[in-house]
Design brief:
heterodimer, A: about 425 residues, alpha/beta, 5-stranded parallel β-sheet, 14 strands, about 50% helix, globular, B: about 290 residues, ABC transporter involved in vitamin B12 uptake, BtuC, two-stranded antiparallel sheet, 11 helices, 2 strands
Chain lengths: ~425, ~290
């Protein structure tokens, strides 16, 4: 027994010495990075039903931060990025954000792509008085923050891909040749509901008639009810799918397999590499008639941009980084979310540290307030979808119309081709 | 109208068959152990993902399916032996068993996420033979779902009604004390019921994988639907699970096709509540004489 106690005591002493021995190396590390870091907290769905969106952003974010730090950081300051998993749950997202704000003392919060999580975290961010930048596929986040009041609008920013307006423009143009009766199909997710809701609200302004709305669960197994609902409306002209999940790809496949040959319009997320791996979806996309996909310039077809297009070198750099760290070229705006977000932050912190080199020596509340002010003055920065954004006090979406937009035709290989000469109408808030 | 009705009908039967498999997993385990098998949907996920993985490695389709089903049974057996045998055999309360099995379901989902990530797995359709009924082309996988369901249910009833194991199984279910006195080991029969539920879940997974895609999070939804189907049909009756699954699938499908897809689950659940209001023990459930609280 005594021998055992001695061995245990010896082990404890060894552990203590080992830990003590490690301390100087920590101090040494501090000397190497003498400059104070810019601390960013990213609330992201890395598990749960929306994990696909979060994981697409996670690896590129790590890649870009490593790249930025290797190149000397931002104005000599390294970037420290702390992730917090929301588990695709709004309550856990708010708790994670609180931990980042209170415990990790982050200077800025980056938000979840999932709207269901981003909106409550955005409301919490305004209470914590910390800038919160969300990268999301729809305008709903910005609209909700404006609705929630001045404080919520003040602290929250979004970078978006103007999906709904893109699609509205596409469908409105089609309607001139194929007809105006539209069916909107959407997944039972916050994103699906937000996009379809906005689409339906705006449809009359674009001369479209919503003849059918139909939803499907995110884990749908068969799509018979949706197919029956479409077949029950023989006068439909166009089908619009507003989802970004696998269920949407599967629903499109089921619709085509059922012999429905109406024109289909969908969003860029539906041509991500992951979705196209599923054989039945890929096959369905190649059935006639062509499926039209509206979305960001970074959606796998940025290589068709003209050589002098300012978006081209930026997206090419992101794609090269993506290939280096993830093992394949970037193929969807979702994969570019992290690049776009950090690209914008590089601009924000670059300007801030240039104007106020000692800002990181100040108290955390002052740092957060300054970061917010500089985010609001972003001008002409390219973000994930290829869009160029210019923020202002009134406009925290900042999208410059038409800058992100590409319309692709999905047909025979190569899988998607840009439709030449398609011009996007400016979204309503710019008219 | 006929075409629309047929689409709804065929989809409803397909959905119902898948729900019935999961519901059978509930019923078999419940009738033996009085335990809610909240892992039932997780075996659907396991079967579908494993078959997808093996197929992705280049194994022939049916070998991939067989391997997936064998592994499902093995995992079911290990789960019972390691985590459930001790609490069950030592007479733990149903609530304790429920908590253990709920924890196992969560661990299963998390492990699948860590092992295989979020990328979905899919299987090709087993055959490409299409059947056209009144102008409606029935997808080939629907036919497989119906056929395999009928075959599996037939085999299950044969096992329960015509074999010695099945008789022992029923004896334990009806009166475990008397069964033990007759030399039957209820612990072993409970183990068998759990493995059988794992196999049924695995079959549901592999036959539905070509229709949908398999991902780590699909189990929970299946567990809920399977549980509802089992409650609807009667938690202690195998035929109840099949009828319950079919009613739930058809109710969802008809509500979605003719009323609104937005409310199809709400309508199906409303129907469940309505039935349970009048038949508390489900359609085929055994009515027990209980003390009235009035």
């Amino acid at each position: 027994m005594k021998a055992k106690t001695r061995i245990m005591a010896g082990l404890v002493i060894c552990m203590f010495l080992l830990l003590a021995g490690l301390l100087p190396s920590g101090a040494h590390g501090k000397e190497v990075t003498a400059q104070k870091p810019i601390v960013l907290g990213w609330v992201l769905s890395l598990s749960g039903p929306m994990a696909g969106l979060g994981i697409d952003a996670y690896k590129p974010a790590l890649a870009l931060v490593e790249h930025i730090n290797k190149e000397g950081g931002i104005a000599g300051h390294p970037v420290k990025l702390i992730f917090a998993d929301t588990e695709s749950d709004a309550t856990k997202g708010v708790i994670a954000a609180k931990r980042l704000v209170m415990k990790d003392k982050v200077h800025m919060l980056l938000g979840d792509t999932s709207l269901g999580v981003a909106i409550p975290v955005g409301l919490a961010a305004s209470q914590f008085k910390i800038p919160h930048l969300v990268h999301t596929g729809s305008e709903a986040f910005g609209m909700q923050m404006k609705k929630a009041g001045k404080e919520a609008h003040h602290w929250n920013f979004a970078v978006i891909g103007v999906m709904v307006y893109d699609m509205m423009t596409v469908v409105a143009k089609w309607s001139k040749t194929v007809g105006t009766k539209v069916a909107v199909l959407y997944p039972d997710s916050a994103f699906g509901k937000a996009c379809s809701g906005l689409f339906m609200k705006l449809a009359p302004k674009y001369g479209l008639e919503i003849a059918l709305t139909s939803s499907y669960p995110m884990n749908a197994t068969v799509f018979g009810p949706q197919i029956a609902a479409i077949k029950g409306k023989p006068d439909l002209d166009v089908l619009v799918f507003t989802g970004a999940e696998f269920a949407t790809g599967l629903c499109i496949a089921a619709v085509r397999e059922a012999g429905i040959t109406l024109p289909i319009g969908t969003e860029s997320a539906m041509i991500s590499a992951e979705i196209l791996k599923v054989e039945k979806i890929r096959k369905a996309y190649q059935m006639a008639p062509t499926i039209m996909v509206s979305g960001g310039a970074s959606d796998g077809f940025w290589e068709t941009l003209p050589p002098d297009d300012p978006r081209r070198p930026v997206i090419a750099e992101w794609s090269a980084l993506h290939e280096k760290f993830v093992g394949r070229k970037m193929s969807s705006a979702r994969e570019a979310y992290a690049f776009g977000t950090l690209h914008l932050l590089k601009d924000v912190w670059g300007r801030l540290l240039k104007d106020q080199p000692d800002i990181l020596d100040k108290d955390v509340a002052s740092i957060r307030a300054a970061a917010r002010d500089y985010t609001e003055t972003v001008k002409n920065v390219i973000v994930s979808s290829g869009a160029t954004v210019s923020m202002s006090a009134e406009d925290h979406l900042g999208l410059i119309p038409g800058t992100c937009f590409m319309l692709a035709r999905f047909r025979d290989p190569p899988p998607h081709q840009v439709v030449p000469g398609f011009e996007m109408a400016p979204p309503p808030w710019r008219r | 109208m006929i075409e629309q009705t047929l689409w709804v009908l065929f989809s409803g039967i397909t959905l119902g068959c898948i729900y019935a498999f999961v519901a059978l997993g509930f019923v078999i385990v419940y009738s033996m152990t009085k335990m809610f098998n909240l892992c039932a949907g997780e075996f659907v996920m396991l079967g579908a993902i494993l078959a997808g993985i093996f197929y992705g490695f280049g194994f022939p389709l049916f070998l991939s399916i067989a391997l997936a089903l064998i592994i499902c049974c093995a995992i079911g057996a290990i789960t019972w032996i390691v985590f459930l045998h001790h609490p069950y055999s030592s007479g733990a309360s149903p609530l304790t068993l429920l908590l253990v099995i709920a924890a196992l379901a969560i661990v299963s989902m998390g492990s699948a996420y860590m092992l295989w990530g979020t990328a979905p797995r899919s299987l090709p359709e087993f055959t490409h033979l299409k059947l056209v009924v009144a102008g409606v082309t029935i997808p080939p996988q629907f036919l497989w779902v119906w056929g395999v369901s009928a075959l599996a249910v037939g085999c299950l009833f044969f096992l329960l009604d015509r074999t010695l194991v099945g008789k022992a199984f029923r004896a334990c279910s009806e009166n475990p004390v008397a069964a033990r006195l007759m030399g039957i080991n209820p612990n072993f029969m409970a183990f068998l019921s759990f493995v059988l539920a794992a196999l049924l879940g695995g079959i549901a997974g592999v036959i539905s994988a070509p229709v949908t895609t398999a991902s780590y999070a699909m189990g929970l939804g299946m567990t809920i639907k399977g549980c509802l189907a089992a409650m609807l049909g009667g938690i202690d009756r195998a035929q109840g699970a099949i009828i319950g699954g079919l009613i739930l699938g058809l109710a969802e499908s008809f509500a979605g096709g003719f009323i609104s897809t937005e409310f199809m689950e709400a309508i199906a659940l409303g129907l469940l509540i309505a039935i349970l209001l009048f038949r508390h023990e489900g359609i085929f459930g055994i009515r027990e004489e209980k003390f009235c609280r009035k």
